Amino acid sequence: MKVTLEQIDELRNRVNVSYEEAKHTLEKNDGDLIKSIIELEKKKGKRNDNYHHSNFTSFTNRLLALKMSVKSKDGNTLLDVPLVLVLIGLVLAFWVVIPALMLAVITSCKIKVYRDKNFVDVNHIKRNVKETVEKIKVKSEEIIKYEDAEVAGNDDSTENEIIIE
User: Fold this and answer.
1) Bridge partners (DSSP) listed for residue 36
2) Is 41 helix (H, G, I), strand (E, B) or coil?
């Protein structure tokens, strides 16, 4: 079927795609505007989900890579922690973190925020959590089976009975 310029313009106005993509989708759907709109919205939705997911993951990885180091005048490391912990401490216990940072500045300590090359990324954390959950499932199933076997093997039913005379 031949696709008209009006159909392409209408599809572009509704879905916000290029002429080429609108034409290709209309030709694929034999000029059916509704089918084309639905197809393009599905594609667009998938792209947006992946885009936001990758942005969040990359932001989290960049945040996890940052560390904060506090060194004394002599060069001894007093504190070397992930910046995320400092930020969490700032939110939950600002009355401790702020005076500690002020004390570090007053005593001429060097405060340095840097990117750690050996940081743990989000995918590594996800993998570790999944492995831990699987181990917990296996162990809990073993415990339940063991307890069931103990109960089944115990034929002394008088232990679980209450006799009232």
Assistant:
1) none
2) helix
Digit-by-digit pLDDT tens for the chain (165 residues) are 688 888 888 888 888 888 888 889 988 988 888 999 898 888 877 665 555 567 787 888 888 889 999 999 999 999 999 998 999 999 999 899 899 999 999 999 999 999 888 877 777 888 889 999 999 999 888 888 887 777 666 655 556 666 666
Query: How many C-beta atoms surround the C-beta of residue 94 within 10 A?
Result: 10
Give the E-state strand segments of the chain in sequence order. Answer: 66-71, 77-82, 110-115
What value, to the nearest 5°, has the Cα angle with vertex 42 and ends 41 and 48?
A: 85
pTM value is 0.45
Task: For residues 123 and 150, give the distance between their C-alpha atoms in angstroms, rounded to a whole number.
Answer: 41
Rounded Cα gap, residues 149 and 60, in angstroms? 46
